[in-house]
Structure formats: structure tokens, C-alpha cells
């Protein structure tokens, strides 16, 4: 039996550990003639009867070591669950700044770079967008993929891939300005002129007909067309509205209007056609390729707009991703800050 000593937050073995543990299976990290093993790795090695760990001359059993490690490392038990799962799936896995770095199947340390950074979190914990972006940046800077390992209350793990994305499509807005004057009525806008209605709906997939030649538009669609000066908007008692006036009224009707509008504008400007995603529990469903309304096919993504300080509920995130997958779409979050950035999150199988 190989012996190691628990020193502060790691287990140290001699040269024999390098030969038996690192050279054969890549546990730990050699430091000169010594091998430093993380507490997570050590717990797994104790369970597998590959190492005995001493503290102050006493050999610790798995229970004693696990309790000691849990007092030293926050969320140790979660990291252990993920580490054990990844090892038993045949991956080489080592500690990293995000949690773990994982090597591709058939790969190993020294032979090729790690493929994933794995961030471990409990289903009960909030996932702060700022923390997610920090981990995404770290993964991107080192050309790695970020994986969220979410551990539920039964200690089962669901793996999600998260990455930055730049959605783009084929649609271009190429119309004359000042087509018509539309009316703001309660919480939507109506275009009364049949010719303008047909152009907006058939060529741009804006709005929905409510009568012969009468087109009803959502607030974000109307704001976009107003800002692009495609048409004007008037409201009884307020006269003709500029964009600031319209967005002020729209924000009173819908408190998150501006973050939705920023996402909508970014999508439309990138050649994508967004429509409401209410039936899917998101702000938008979007179409990458659009020519005319008669050739429209199924939407490609679900997009939900969030603010820069958003905090994810992992239960809500799980429902959103599962629903998107069930209808064969990707779940994308549009982060509205000074600019709009997009993050796609989806379940993955490792």
C-alpha cells in the first residue's frame, strides 16, 4: 500500500507515488521528487484502495478523510461526486481554476491539451451571470469548452455546455422609410394601410393580420421599425411619438421592454427574424433563414433576454434547456448591457 501524508489542503507522497500514480494514471502533479495530490483525488484513491493517508501519524479511513476534507474545501462533496463520475467514465481529470480540467477520450496530460473546463455547482445554488461569464472568459482564453456539472439532491449529475455565440442569419431590411403612420392602442400597434401591412408581414415577418389589410405588431417590433424610421407611430392624446417617447410608454406597459428590445434589435440587425417565444417560455423564437412568409420553416433558436447582473435559478435553467431540446432548438441567452452578447447553454453527453 502506498502511503501519503495530509499536509494543509493536499496529500504528499514520495517518488513511488509519481511512479505508481502519476506515470500510470495521471493522479496528482509531480513537484520534484514528490507527488502532490488534491483532496478530491486522494478521497477517490482511498476508496479504490490505492493509497493510505496519514495525519499526525494516524491513518485516516475514507469517512475520516472525507469529513476532514469537507472542513477544508468548500463544496468538497460535490467536487468528489463529479470527479468520481468523470474518472469512472474513463476521462483523465485534474484540478483547475474553474473546478476541473478534463482531457479528451484517448488523451492524457503531456500528450495533448485538456478539452474541457468543468465548473461544479449544486442545483440549489444560484448561478450568477458574472461568475458564468468569468468562467467562459477563462475557457475561451485557453481555447477550452466550458462544462457546467450540476449536482442534484440525489447526487446525480447533469452536464451542460455553455459557450459564447454570435447568431447570424440571411434576412436584410431593405425598405423605403416612412411607409405609413401606425397607431399605438393599449399594448400593441396597428398598421391600417393594406399595402404597408403586406410589405411588413410578407417580406419581413412582422406582426399578424387582424383583418383584411390590418396588421397588428408587438411592442418590440414596433419600436424597431420606428427606430429604423420605416414608419411613424401616433397615440391618441399624445400625438406622434419619437423612439424615446414610445419606449417610455412601452416600458410602463412591459417593465423589461428595453432589454427585450436590445436583444430584438441585435437579432434583427444580424439577419435573424425573431418572433414571440411565449409558447416556449422565452422571449423569442428565431429564424436564421427567411425570404418570404410563404417559405418560412421551423424556428432555430429560443432566445431569452437577461440583464448583466442576472442570477440563474438552476431549476428554471434546466426547464428552459429541456424544453428547447424537446422542440429541437438551442437555448440562447441574450445579455443586454452596453451591448448585447449571446450565450448558448445546452445539455451534453460526455
Describe it:
- This protein is of the alpha+beta class.
- The chain is built from ten helices and 24 strands.
Please name the defining characteristics of this protein.
350 residues, alpha+beta, six-stranded mixed beta sheet, ten-stranded mixed beta sheet, single chain, 10 helices, 32% strand, MutS, DNA mismatch repair protein, domain I
Topology:
Layout lengths: L1 E6 L2 E4 L1 H11 L3 E3 L2 E5 H9 L3 E5 L2 E3 L1 H11 L3 H13 L4 E3 L4 E3 L13 E7 L4 E2 H13 L3 E7 L5 E9 L15 E5 L2 E4 L2 H11 L3 E4 L2 E4 L1 H9 L4 E4 L3 E3 L1 H11 L3 H13 L3 E4 L7 E4 L13 E7 L3 E2 L1 H13 L3 E7 L3 E8 L3
Parallel strand pairs: 1-5, 9-11, 13-17, 21-23
Antiparallel strand pairs: 1-2, 2-4, 3-4, 5-6, 7-8, 8-9, 10-22, 11-12, 12-24, 13-14, 14-16, 15-16, 17-18, 19-20, 20-21, 23-24
Helix pairs in contact: 2-3, 2-4, 7-8, 7-9
Amino acid at each position: 500500500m502506498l502511503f501519503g501524508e495530509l499536509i494543509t489542503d493536499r496529500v504528499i507522497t514520495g517518488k513511488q507515488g509519481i511512479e505508481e500514480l502519476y506515470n500510470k494514471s495521471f493522479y496528482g502533479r509531480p513537484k520534484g521528487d514528490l507527488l502532490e495530490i488534491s483532496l478530491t483525488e486522494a478521497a477517490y484513491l482511498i476508496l479504490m484502495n490505492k493509497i493510505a493517508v496519514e495525519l499526525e501519524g494516524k491513518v485516516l479511513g475514507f469517512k475520516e478523510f472525507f469529513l476532514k476534507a469537507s472542513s477544508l474545501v468548500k463544496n468538497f462533496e460535490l467536487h468528489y461526486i463529479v470527479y468520481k463520475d468523470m474518472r469512472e467514465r474513463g476521462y483523465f481529470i485534474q484540478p483547475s481554476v474553474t473546478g476541473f480540467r478534463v482531457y479528451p477520450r484517448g488523451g492524457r496530460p503531456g500528450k495533448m491539451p485538456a478539452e474541457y473546463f468543468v465548473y461544479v455547482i449544486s442545483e440549489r445554488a444560484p448561478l450568477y451571470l458574472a461568475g458564468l461569464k468569468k468562467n467562459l472568459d477563462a475557457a475561451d482564453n485557453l481555447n477550452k469548452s466550458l462544462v457546467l456539472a450540476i449536482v442534484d439532491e440525489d447526487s446525480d449529475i447533469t452536464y451542460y455546455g455553455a459557450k459564447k455565440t454570435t447568431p447570424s442569419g440571411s434576412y436584410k431590411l431593405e425598405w423605403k422609410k416612412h411607409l405609413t403612420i401606425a397607431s399605438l392602442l393599449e399594448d400593441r400597434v396597428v398598421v391600417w394601410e393594406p399595402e404597408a401591412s403586406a410589405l411588413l408581414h410578407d417580406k419581413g415577418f412582422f406582426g399578424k393580420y387582424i383583418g383584411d389589410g390590418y396588421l397588428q405588431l408587438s411592442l418590440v417590433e414596433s419600436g424597431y421599425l420606428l427606430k429604423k424610421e420605416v414608419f411613424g407611430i401616433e397615440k391618441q392624446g399624445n400625438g406622434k411619438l419619437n423612439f424615446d417617447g414610445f419606449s417610455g410608454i412601452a416600458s410602463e406597459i412591459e417593465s423589461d421592454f428595453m432589454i427585450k428590445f436590445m436583444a430584438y434589435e441585435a437579432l434583427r440587425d444580424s439577419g435573424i427574424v425573431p418572433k414571440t417565444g411565449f409558447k416556449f417560455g422565452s422571449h423569442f423564437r428565431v429564424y436564421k433563414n427567411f425570404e418570404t412568409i410563404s417559405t418560412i420553416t421551423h424556428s432555430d433558436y429560443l432566445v431569452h433576454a437577461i440583464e448583466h447582473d442576472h442570477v440563474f435559478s438552476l431549476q428554471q435553467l434546466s426547464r428552459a434547456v429541456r424544453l428547447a431540446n424537446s422542440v429541437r432548438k438551442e437555448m440562447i441567452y441574450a445579455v443586454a448591457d452596453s451591448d448585447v452578447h449571446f450565450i448558448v447553454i445546452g445539455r451534453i453527453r460526455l
